[in-house]
Amino acid sequence: MKRCIYPGTFDPFTNGHLDVLQRAASLFSHVRVAVAIDSTKQALFTPEQRVALIQANLHGLPNVDVVSFEGLLVEFARQQQSHAIIRGLRALSDFEFEFNMALMNRHLEPEVETLFVMPNEAFSYTSSSLVKQIAKLGGDVRKFVPANVARALRKAYAKK
Ligand code: COA
């Protein structure tokens, strides 16, 4: 049984994340999406909201589940008995950050391998922060995120 973890802040989950997740789900027998609670980023959505927004998009992916985690990613991977971490690489600009993180994680836990998946090029410019910026200014984000995420963004910014 080949298991992997797909970690991220997912604030919020985008169509690009979904694309990576679908690819990972076709390669592994089980994929656990791991929502970081203590990411360095100031999140718009709570970890519980981020988990729920992802869970609602798992139709057709019976081998995927979603949890949140705190602390070191490699420690979480070890607890889950998972030997692979999946990360999406959208463009060359992602590479340096991902490369450093993968090597640091390997240094911390040599048994855990990081694997990179390229999402469809249609998502190469999609990012959670750009989507939030557009939604905050009243723009239409329905092309970039699942419908439930677009609704949650509208609601979150209507309150502010
Ligand atoms: N499609 C669209 N966007 C994508 C994408 C894809 N396929 N893949 C990445 N992105 C974007 C996200 O939208 C996000 O954009 P933003 O920065 O503009 O908001 C960015 O790329 C990355 O976000 P995300 O994929 O959610 O992951 P992250 O980089 O925030 O996740 C952790 C980082 C959680 C994996 C990392 O901080 C971590 O491991 N934390 C735990 C603590 C730890 O172990 N630290 C030591 C690390 S060496």
What does this structure look like?
- It is a single chain.
- Helices cover 42% and strands 18% of the residues.
- It has 160 residues and is of the alpha/beta class.
- The protein has a single domain (3-124), classed as HUPs (Rossmann fold), CATH 3.40.50.
- Strands 1-2-3 form a three-stranded parallel sheet. The protein has a two-stranded parallel sheet with strand order 4-5.
- The radius of gyration is 15 Å and the shape is globular.
- The chain binds coenzyme A.
- Coenzyme A (COA) binds at residues 7-10, 14, 16-17, 19-20, 36, 39, 41, 72-73, 88, 90, 101, 104-105, 119, 123, 126-129.
The assigned CATH architecture is 3-Layer(aba) Sandwich
The distinct bound ligands, ions and cofactors come out as: coenzyme A
CATH domain class name = Alpha Beta
What best-fitting shape do the alpha-carbon axes yield?
Answer: globular
Percentage of residues in strands: 15-25%
Structural class: alpha/beta
- Order of strands side by side in the largest beta sheet? 1-2-3
E-strand count: 5
The averaged pLDDT comes out at 95
Please report the distance between the alpha carbons of the first and last residues. 46 Å
The succession of helices and strands, N to C, reads EHEHEHEHEHH
Largest sheet composition: 3 strands, parallel
